[in-house]
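Quick illustration, no need to memorize.
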Amino acid sequence: MPRRIQVRRSSIHGRGVFAVAPIAAGTDLIDYRGRLITHAEADRRYGDDDSGHTFLFSLNRHYVIDAGHHGNSARFINHSCEPNCETVLVESDDGDPKRDRVVIQTLRDIVPGEELAYDYRIDAGGRITRALLQCWACHCGAPRCRGTLLYRRRPSRR
């Protein structure tokens, strides 16, 4: 199969992943790979890191994918407030949470040279402070950029 993506310098942040061939909407591009660790282990390793940079992806309520260890090109896909990709959780057929996986899938047709991006929707886990907003500032440049990688849950109307 011909190569569809490549990693190179990004205007959004650091390195990014770009299409090198046309990619149709709904295409499963790449799995997000890395070492599987528990949430507690992720907190021990990275809990005090306030750099605003992470290769962690919350897989399910049991595990986190640490793409900083044994990760692939998917770890370089940047955030956008107006993404052209999304993440899809694929649960294992046997119900084993260790075998769940995350697939990056295109939301629309992608043209060669276009940077791939999805909405990180980072959960701050509590009150969103000015320091958190500064730490997780967005640089996607989208017309409707919300200014942060953090996701604000809307209160339920009950």
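Helices lie at 39-46, 130-135.
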